[in-house]
Amino acid sequence: MPYPDHSSFRSLGFYLLAVTLWACQGNSVETIEVATLESPEVEPVIVYDASDSLLMGLNVFNLDSVLKNASFAYLIYDATTDSIIAERNPDLSLVPASTIKLFTTAAALELLGPGAHFGTRLLYDGEIENRILKGNLIIKGGGDPTFCIGEQTMNKVFAAWGSSVAQLNIDSITGDIIGDARIFSEDFIPYTWTWGEINLGYSAAPSGLSFNGNLFRLVFDPNSKDLIIPQAGDLALTHPNSAYLNQTAIYDADDELYLVGFPNSSEKKIRGTVREGTTKAEVVGVIHDPALLAATLFKKKLMDKGIHVSGVARSTLATDSLRARDTSQTRHQIAAVGSPSVDSMVYSVNHHSNNFMAETLLKHLGVKKKGYGSTEAGVEAVYSFMKSKSIDVSGFYMFDGSGISRFNAITVNQLVQLLKYMQHSPDSAAFISSLAVAGQSGTLSKMCLDSEAMGNIQGKSGTMSRVKSYAGYAKSRSGHTLIFAIIVNNFNCSSVEMRSKIENILNLMATM
Fold first, then answer.
1. Beta-carbon count within 10 A of 119 CB
2. pLDDT band at 10 (very low <50, low <70, confident <90, very high)
3. What stretches of 73-183 show up as alpha helix (H) in DSSP?
4. Could you tell me whether strands 119-124 and 137-140 are parallel, antiparallel, or unpaired per DSSP bridges?
5. Per the count of CB atoms within 10 A, which of 40, 52, 270, 457 is most buried?
6. Which residue segments constitute the domains of the chain, with CATH numbers given?
7. Where do the H-state alpha helices sit in 279-402?
8. How far is CA 182 from CA 140, 292, 408, in A?
9. Do the strands 249-250 and 267-274 form a parallel or antiparallel pair, or are they unpaired?
């Protein structure tokens, strides 16, 4: 409804004032009587519709003092009427954090296929003579991010594989146990990740032979400053000479522990804080050569089973000569395990913001499109996917599949274009169902509680230091489907406060 025009009231008032003054200038002038305009008994009521409320809410957001030094953009598109409701800086490239996962997962569904699986195989080379395998056992990685996650699963898989080896009448192996991760590149940590993050739990990068999600937990006594040396069979034995130096400090706050050190170094430092009186602490670390750890632990399981192994545990990362030797041998399959389907991995990535699976899918895109499982090849595949769907790639900068890299930069226009395409994609059901639901599930489970947006927003969130982003679909009160994207960089408030401000916008969208 348009605003009432008060200019006519003002003009009439000025006219009456002018006439009265003129009439009072002298006695020779006849007094002119003018009717007065009575004030209305009730003030006029201005009625706004829901779209006005959204635009007013966005205007309040635009003028918020916490955005004084920020760069931010948003785009809200009505898919029902094919019209833009509101936009600001739609083509400004901004750091997106985890909303970049939407591009990774959309490309994975379309290029890899929702039903694709990745296997891990146990192979041998050489010959079996008189119960002796004169050769090697090889764990051939197929890029399965779920291989042997959890001690129970690891024990089950390795026990079954040990039985399969025994069934070949093998009780002795002259060669090595080799972890083969060559489906992906050796440099599996994206080069734009920061030094301070590469040992943190959320930064586990995928290997061609990933193991236990490429994470381990180390339990230790923070009061002891002795070198911590893991025992055989411990997941913290990430290197044959693994050792951890406790450098924690006592502090009256919650425990906050992390590891520091070169990725493949044998010794790392435990830093951070623990509460006074703590006698048992736990730190999560990243396994940087999971193929070696898988081979090490499987060798131990074989020895425990009574199958003697003369050789050592090795990884194909070890030496060029080992890699050359391995490719020259004929291999025979003993056993295999498969991964979940791609659509279930996409669900984990988008619903729970799983960085590890996002990076795994990106490298599989590289294998599919370029024949090489590197981050760079995967990024090229995403670019090609976007271009094939007529999505503008100018200002699109992608350096990983998960959003950890601060080198990433995208626009809200690109997010909305992608979401518009995926709404009608052959894989739309798998993609949309993978998104979190406001107030109900995933990373949006605590947003928009007890509001009209609860249950009516499906999307992906992104958070890192000084970055907040949201993108997805909104079902409005009028039955329209809205597609939205919001990115804010370098705001002057807490992450929680910025979330609340954006939450207000989502609520206003739902009431349209």
1. 14
2. very low
3. 101-107, 151-167
4. antiparallel
5. 457
6. 50-115+342-510 (3.40.710.10), 118-339 (3.50.80.20)
7. 290-304, 320-327, 342-352, 355-370, 375-388
8. 8, 13, 27
9. parallel
